[in-house]
Every structure is written in structure tokens, then in C-alpha cells.
């Protein structure tokens, strides 16, 4: 599984789910609305931890590189919050993150392109990709042959989301780019003889409100579904083409049964059959009378209904008619009327077109809505406002036909009336459409009245004014909020589509910043409280852990920033940074490292350093590291500051795992164990070393790496992690940081040289322990060879030479450690930690060197016994400070016992005074040099 994205922000698995309409409402509350209208409105004091503590003992964050930190918001993470394995797989995230990133990067590389053109290219790219994903999800839904409900629900949810997301990008394309257009200076005088259509177009140029209302209505028309026209078998089509078939048949049979043929002969061609004034009984229900006059106004005039069998026809006809008008497809609406034997309704449906004359109104003649031509002459409705009132009257009339609701709603849409249109509205978009359509008609009529284009007689006929009803300020915000009451379950759907509807509402009402601020606050709350569950926050329908929604909002922000419609400072700017940072953390959780720098470049410097300082902690492969470094250079990111922050984060996050109280008394005893039994390098050790390696591939960061290395050495030595220290030495040796002689190195400052010398000092311990390890292994081989007898004499001779070399190496390195290791650091700021390290290791190193001398005397030459006593002299010397380490750890008594034992061995080995071991002749037995005491020397000492 992928490494966890370290952050208080944890991204749990999110899948689309359907909500129970009777359960918790997913709409945002009116009292605390997502889009409310503006006018409605424990510490650890571990010596292995941080370097500096305040006088009260509280923790002070100090970066490893020095005392001046530019990061004042570092977080101390409790141990139980560390190393959470949270990851997102590609199936959860979706393939569109890569394609969206490609579009963003492609248009980023063309800065000289027209801003609005670039934005439209981005939006179109997003929309095309989303449509492709929708088609793929639709294909998977249609091809799924299993019976797992959860699977099909997920696929359906995914299909619905991509469909609605595509609609959202279409809305963005229509509305957002034009919001920064200056409409001043676009007015022109419309002559009296010109069509009202010219006035309508003039209003579009003058009024941003009218322009946006039309764009919203056009968008709502484009996403409306096709009308449901039955076409299951031939009888359906025949029924619709035959009109009120059952009523006509009933009238025909009644006429055949009751007419007098002779009367028709006498009266001639003008003869007319008279039905009873009371009407005739319905063939389906003898107690119900049906109308006998079949002209369009017959049922209304006679106050009777058609035959019961014709209810299917009426319901189907009016519902489909409403669907065509709702979609703005008036041409097919008229064709539907003709097909259903109601051709007289076609002119009514087409009456919304203002009259135009090709010769006079040349500007609008190329509009596809108008079919004017020089040969045809004027076209359209010259009394459109009177036509509106007629449609309103039809919408308000009393009717009891089965399709009454749809018929009234169809006329209500034509008239621009809200009240009669809403009963037929089935979804959120229908409700928005009914009100936006009414507002457009009201604004247009007001403009026509202002220009004297409506007669007084027409004005006397009442028609509702949506502008007067809904107001003129934040109207779209009020409409959106009115459809978002907590007790309104009409539009309850999956959580994802509900959230996308909130996004669409924010775009429509021009309140995207408010939505972004709510999303940002969720992300902040999530970082403060990992147990926070956004989907249970009933005040908002959005959830910051919804990956797809987070992607959509992030890229809307990018588009607005590109268009210059997003502030660079202030609360909204901070909220945008928080959302983009959340998107980056989500990408990191899914290991989408290659595209992260693209989005990090959109953050401010401090936020970019903060976020990337978290992300880089989880890059483990060398190839990815190289890619990231190239991306840093390509996008102009601050490599040094980011790597410093990454290193600091690694220290802060791993701190709770380094507890010096777990340190064994004899740390070096683990080197007597086999490699399999030793304490292995732990994940936290690897994280620190791996993080430090970033600085190896960056330029001019050797000084930072030296500081970091010293801190890692201290942590490893204070907690007995010697194999971790060895790994650090192997992967980041001092020779790679200080290639030349330290004193002659001109690349490092004096401070850097000081810290480099400390690094080398810490590295020396590992070299000494390796030398001790080699010595111990050769001793073990020698013991094994002694058991083999004389058959391995040649091998024993060679081994003795190797043992001599190993002894000299061990004696040299361990002797240096005992004599001066870390002594120069006693006056540094971390002297307490250095003192603790010396107290931990120097006694063991001294005892180990004592053992080396003792074993050398036993296996090489007895004269080496004297080295034990020479070592004792060094231990006793006050300036060495070695004795103090034995006293501090309570091990002096053990060392004195060892000295007593070696003294007896020296007495047994001494047989006379001989020269130093280097002057011993072959075959001559040496004596111990320490016993070569001259009286003159004694007198001088006395």
C-alpha cells in the first residue's frame, strides 16, 4: 500500500452513495446557508528530541539548520498520529486528474495567448475529458452483467456525476469568462421602425444582469432531457396521431344511432347533426358526459371532458409539449402539435419570436431562430407582449383535463409566469428555469415599456412581473437558496450530485468565493481535528474528502485566477490556497507526485514550502525524486526552502519515536550479536536518512545537510541505534560533503567548518566500531583454527598477520575515540546532549579498547598487556574526562576490577627488562614495558 500522506488531514475512502430521501437532508440550511444571499443573511522532555527547550520545559520548534526559523507553525504530532497508512488508489481518484493536469500545464506554457481564449481552451478541455469519462462510465453500466447491487450503484453514481460535471463545465464556459467584460459604451439608438428584437439585443449589451439570465436559461435549455415520447409500438404513434380518438368514435357512433337519413337528404349539404344539449354519455362511464364540440375551445366552453380513453393522449401530449418548450425547442414543439392533430397550437408555440424584417433588421436576419428572407418578407410576432398575456390567460384558466398540469405549465413558460410553471417542475434545474425565464420576460417587458414599445391597451391586461416579485438585488442567490431548505426533500439525490448542484448554484449566483471559503474551512477543520466528518455537517452539501468535487473546485479556482477574477490577497485568496493545497495533499495520497509541482506553483511561497515539505517526505523511489527535482526547476519552486522544511518535518514527526530511556546500559554489547539479532534500522530512521538524501541532489545545500546529519547522529546515538548511524555513514559519508581537507576547504563558512568537524567526529564512532567488529571476527577465526591443529599452520600465519593489522586499526581508531571524542563539543549549545552521548559510549569504548589490548597480548605478543595500563593512565588524566564518564554511569568499579586482573597478567608475563616490543628479536620473549621502571625516574617523580 502507498505510504501515508502525513498530515492531520486524512482522506478516508469515499464512494458515491445514494441517500434515503427520508433520512438526513443533504441540502444546506437557510439559517446557515452554503450560499446565503448577501441581503438575507502531551509534551515529552526527551534528551533525544528537540535541541532547545524553554525555561518552563515547553517545546520550542527550532529548525535543524539554525535558531532562526521561518516556519512558526510546525506541528508536534503525538505518537499515535504518526505513520498512518492512508492512501487513495487510482480507481477512487479517477483518471481525469492526469488529463486535467495536462491541460493546465499546456496552457501554462502559452502565457502570451489571449487570456479569455486560454481560459476557454482550458474549460473546453475539461469538458471534453469529462464527457469521455461519462461515455466510459455509461459503457460500463450498459455492459455490466453481474447482480451485485453495490457495483451497479457505484457505476450509476459515477455516470451521473460525470454527466453533471460536464454540465457544470458548460455552465462555467458560458458564464465565467464574460463576467469581466465592460458593458459601458455599447448602447446605440434603436429606430422606431426597427424590430423589438433589436431592442432585446441592445438590452443584452447594456445589462449584465439580462445577459447572464439569458446565458443561464440557454444553459438550462441545453441540459434539459429530451421529452418522453412513447414509441413502444405502432399503437402509441397511431394514438397520438388520431387525437381524441375515443371521444370522436363515441360521437360517431351516437350520430349513426340517432340521425335521420331523410332529414339530411332534405336539408342538403348544409345539414348538421344536433347533439343533445346536455351532451352524451362517455362510452367508458355512462354517468359521465363528454363534450360534443371538438374545436380547441369546445371542452372549455361546454365545461366537459373528453372520453376516459383519451386521458392517455392528453397526458402524453401536454407533458411532451411542456418538455419541448422547457428545452427551448420550439420548432419541434410545433411539429409535435401537428403530429398529434393539434396543428392550431403550432402558431401559439412559435409566437415567442419577435417580428423581424430582413430588409430592415439585417443585424438579426442570420439568427437561426428567424427564417426571414427577402422573398418571404417579415416574419415573427409583432404583438408579442399581447401574445404573452394570452398565454398567461390560458395558463390560468380552469381546466379538468388529465394533462391540465402540463398544459398550464407549458403556457406558463411561454408567458413567463412562475406560479403556473412550477407544478410541472420535476427537478432542481426545472425550478431554476421557471424563475429565470420569468425574470427574462419581466426585464424585457420593462425595457420595451421604457422605450414606448407596448401599447396602453396591452398594459391594461394583467401579467405577473417577476422582477417585482423577486427583487433586483442578489436575485439568483435568493432563487438558489429558496431551493435549498433543510426540510425540502424534492431534490434529494446522491451526495455527489447534491454537491455538484451546490457548485452550479454558486456559479449561477456568482458566489464561487463563498463556496471556496466553506470548502477551505472544512479542510482547515479536518487538519485541526482528524475525526471531523464533513459529510455529517448538515449545514453544507459539500465534502472536502470527495476527490472528484475537490478536483472540480480546484480547477474552477485556477480558471478564475487565470482570468484575473480572483483576488491575490485577503480571505478569498487564502481560501483558494487552502483548497489547492488540499488537492495537492490528495494527489500525494494517491502517489501522483509528477503532477504535484504544477499545482504547487500556484501557491504562495510560504504555503508552497509548507505543503511540499509534507509531500516530499513520502517520495521513496530515486526516479520519482529525480523527476520532482526537475519539476521544481521547471516550475520555479524554491528547492532549498522546501528541502529545509521537509527535513524539519521529518525531525518533528519522528521525534516521539526516539526515547532515550529505552537505551541499554551497555550499548556496544549489541555488536557481540550476529547481524540477524541486532536491532535493525527502523522506519523512522530510514525516513530521516531518506529525507536528508534530497539535499545531496540539490545545489549548495551541504551546510544544511551537515546540520541535519549532526542532529540525526545525536538521535541515533542517544537511543542506541548504531546500525542506523552506520547506514547514515554509508549513504551520506563526510567525504561527499567535505571532499577536501577541512581547514583548506574554501566552499564552507567557518560555522560550516565547525559543524563539519562535529559530523566527522560522530562518523568516527562508526569507523571505530567497524574496526572493532573486524578485530572480533578475526579473533573468532583464530579460535576456530586452533582447534584444527597443525594442518592449518600456513593459514594461521596469514591470519596472525591480518590480526596484527586489525589490531593496529582498532587501537588507532578506538584510542582516538577515548582520547578526544566530542571533547571539542563540550562548550557547544547542545553540550548536555553531547555529555549524555559521551557518558553512554566512552566507558564502553574504553572497556572495548582494554579488551582489544588484552586479546592482543594473548594472541599476538604479551607486551600488549602493557597497553591496558597505558590506557588506564589516560583514563585517570583529568583533562581527558574519561574517568568522569565512568563515574557518571557507575562503572568505575568494574573498570578497576579489569585493571586488577590485567595487572596480575602483566606480573606473570614479566621475566625481565627488555626493550620496547618494536625492538624484540625473533624468538625472544618480551617483558612488559610498564615494569621497566628506573630509580632515577622514581626519584624525579618523588
UniProtKB/TrEMBL annotation:
The keyword Membrane applies. InterPro entries: Nup84/Nup107. It comes from the Eukaryota. Residues 23-35 have a biased composition (Polar residues). GO terms for molecular function: structural constituent of nuclear pore. Gene3D superfamilies: 1.10.3450.20, 1.20.190.50. It is found in: Nucleus, Nuclear pore complex; Nucleus membrane. Keywords: Membrane, mRNA transport, Nuclear pore complex, Nucleus, Protein transport, Translocation, Transport. One of its GO terms (biological process) is protein import into nucleus. One of its GO terms (cellular component) is nuclear pore outer ring. The keyword Ribosomal protein does not apply. Residues 1-40 are annotated as: Disordered. Functions as a component of the nuclear pore complex (NPC). Part of the nuclear pore complex (NPC). Belongs to the nucleoporin Nup84/Nup107 family. This is Nuclear pore complex protein. It comes from Dactylellina haptotyla (strain CBS 200.50).
